[in-house]
Sequence to fold (139 residues):
Amino acid sequence: MTVRLPLFASALWWGSLTAVGFMVVPMLFMNLPTPAMAGLMAAKLFTAQTWVSAVCCVALMLVNRVGGNSSKVERPQASMLFIVLGLLLALLVEYAVAPRIVARENLRFWHSAGSVMYGVQWLCAAIVLWRMADPRKQP
Fold:
């Protein structure tokens, strides 16, 4: 199980970031009657996405911790920096950036900052997934 869990968690993390951020939220703004309605729904989706990211990152860290020095868990260990960075970015967007966007405080700046952080989190998840799926390291 500890062999497949990192691949599953990293695929779920990257896939959910991709689906929510690059497909679902843009569709909300194209199809809902007002940007305000789309924004409220997007905020709820991004909150749910934060929890998906957190669970996936914690699972990846736990597999690394439980696995110890086993060669089967080598890939999460090599990706730990990206896992931690991705988790921190998800939490920063949720608890530091999103409240400022909701309060409409310097909206352009905070929306841009949140978008950049989301994009970097997506890159972290992509790097982790790429490393987990390396066929040369399959048991």
About this structure: Residues 5-134 form one domain. The mean pLDDT is 90. The chain has one domain: 5-134.
